[in-house]
Amino acid sequence: MTTLKLDLGQRSYPIHIGTGLLDQPELFAPHVAGRQAVIVTNTTVEPLYAARLVRTLEALGKQVRTVVLPDGEAYKNWQTLNQIFDSMLSSQADRKTTLVALGGGVVGDMTGFAAACYMRGVPFVQVPTTLLAQVDSSVGGKTGINHPLGKNMIGAFWQPNAVIADVSTLASLPARELAAGMAEVIKHGAIADAEFFAWVEAHIDALNGGDVDALAHAVRRSCEIKASVVARDEREGGLRAILNFGHTFGHAIEAGLGYGAWLHGEAVGCGMVMATDLSCRMGLTPADLTERMAALVAAARLPVKGPALGEDRYIELMHVDKKAEGGEIRFVLLDRLGSAVVTVAPDEALRATLHANV
Amino acid sequence: MTTLKLDLGQRSYPIHIGTGLLDQPELFAPHVAGRQAVIVTNTTVEPLYAARLVRTLEALGKQVRTVVLPDGEAYKNWQTLNQIFDSMLSSQADRKTTLVALGGGVVGDMTGFAAACYMRGVPFVQVPTTLLAQVDSSVGGKTGINHPLGKNMIGAFWQPNAVIADVSTLASLPARELAAGMAEVIKHGAIADAEFFAWVEAHIDALNGGDVDALAHAVRRSCEIKASVVARDEREGGLRAILNFGHTFGHAIEAGLGYGAWLHGEAVGCGMVMATDLSCRMGLTPADLTERMAALVAAARLPVKGPALGEDRYIELMHVDKKAEGGEIRFVLLDRLGSAVVTVAPDEALRATLHANV
């Protein structure tokens, strides 16, 4: 097991990465202070891992309840969130009750938001069981739900008390979801560590094949990079934006096709190829980097060409996505492998990128 | 105008108290950073003050939208909160959009919670128009909504960027609501400042009569006391509990009669008489303090006797209320006028207090 630390002063927390962690009460003990713990999971993960986690928490003398949410992004809404509140209130959960998120990104985001809001804030622990959640969404404290008018529009920054990433759980993950998580692994190399990017290139077959040691290393280095960025910019005032590399194009793909058609990681994989292509066209990086990025994204079994939405529609969708920032589309680009910059892009370069990659 | 400061490091903010403040753009200017402002108010306050506030914000060049909620505690729920989100999302409000709460405690709590959650947090300004909101709920960052299974169960600590308390707006307040706010004024004297308590005793007729200078002083001193407590314990880890003086009995009254039968301040007024009586019975303070408290509460036109719910029912309700704290009922009592302590109470003293004051 490796333990990293996300350094946020009083809100600092450990990230434990290893195998068989679900069964180790001592990892949970320092983070489950009250008498009660509530495991929040979904219908897919519950039959696989909930009983083990219940046993681990009961070994600590906790009263444990389990709330099983329906599985899928479509249920990441207020009604489902309220299932958590209903269960907590009807069992008289108090301010010291700890929520434990057992599942992927949707479960983690919703559990974290429930923890942020229940009695104005209770502790929670992330136990991510997908690669995407282990390398990205469980770390950094972004929580929330969707609104009919926008994804992740209602939420909070609420840091977990610990992240416990048991890489053994990745064995049960469908290949398509493993690939989707790999997009964020590649992203971390691209924006922050060229050597790690090269390591992923060299080990992509082992990673695709579910090699536990390779996956543990990928999770560890990804969490280190993400933790270091979040520690410097918890609330996304500036630097944290670089974690959105590939996401501006990716969100356009997701929104253009309708959310759920492509997995988030699939859209990000393709989006990273586009963003690298744009970086090259703008003269920020040598032209061969696009090929290298496309080769790795393809090797990770992710799409490298965007769906044919039409260039105008892409640009319109990116404008909607970025309205939150005040009008102009700001792209996360690479000025070399392992280093990201946030900048605007000339319209003709953007159109050339879309033309070449759709 | 007087300006106080609530000192919370980076989250510090000014509390402006005076007359005619609604019409002073320069007070709002430093706190409304983005292009858009959204005023949230209710059907009662909107016709009285919204147009003036719109004019003030438009004078700063802001695009201003107004969201009008139904009036009353019964609407302090997710559905009403969603009216705010719907309006913001459909007008593409961005992360710099400032919410402005124009109204009493319910409007302030809901607007603050919407600000805490919209895109994981946007700025907001409190413009309280009731005495209760000016002396208590607008200061300190407690925000939230009710759940069918409990009051204020879903919420956040989210500090406003400023509180702008225009005491001229109290002229439109019904006498019953003015009295309800006075309960919190009396509370601040009781727990923190014997001299201020005596000043309220001496000026209660002027306060009841709506004397603007007297009200401004009462608001100012109340905000000073509350700000000083909150600055030392923002998230209610300990000290902040003293602000709940009278509230344990008060909540039992509100819950026992059904929320809304008595106003919160009426229940707190009566609750403070009970809590003082209990303090005396436990030998913490001289016996004449109960009489003095009852006389002031009565002079403020608030009830001094609790409804006949039965002693057992009171105790049961107080246990439910305090389950959040882990089992035992912890009372905020006075060890002298102007000084509060948090402690448990012997059952027979508690029953004697209920017997004498119901």
TrEMBL record, chains A, B:
Every 3-dehydroquinate synthase C-terminal domain range: 181-324
Originating organism: Pandoraea thiooxydans
UniProt KW keywords: Amino-acid biosynthesis, Aromatic amino acid biosynthesis, Cobalt, Cytoplasm, Lyase, Metal-binding, NAD, Nucleotide-binding, Zinc
One of the GO BP terms on file: chorismate biosynthetic process
Pfam family, one: DHQ_synthase
Catalysed reactions, as listed in the record: 7-phospho-2-dehydro-3-deoxy-D-arabino-heptonate = 3-dehydroquinate + phosphate
The protein's role, per its UniProt record: Catalyzes the conversion of 3-deoxy-D-arabino-heptulosonate 7-phosphate (DAHP) to dehydroquinate (DHQ).
Family: Belongs to the sugar phosphate cyclases superfamily. Dehydroquinate synthase family.
Binding site for Zn(2+): E184, H247, H264
Required co-factors: Co(2+); Zn(2+); NAD(+)
Record note on cofactor: Binds 1 divalent metal cation per subunit. Can use either Co(2+) or Zn(2+).
Top class in the EC scheme: lyase
A GO CC term attached to the entry: cytoplasm
Subcellular location: Cytoplasm
Catalytic activity, EC: 4.2.3.4
Annotated binding of NAD(+), by residue: 71-76, 105-109, 129-130, 142, 151
One MF term in the entry's GO annotations: metal ion binding
Domain 3-dehydroquinate synthase N-terminal stretches: 67-179
Record-linked NCBIfam families: aroB (TIGR01357)
SUPFAM superfamilies named among the record's database cross-references: Dehydroquinate synthase-like
Name the UniProt record assigns to this protein: 3-dehydroquinate synthase
Pathway: Metabolic intermediate biosynthesis; chorismate biosynthesis; chorismate from D-erythrose 4-phosphate and phosphoenolpyruvate: step 2/7
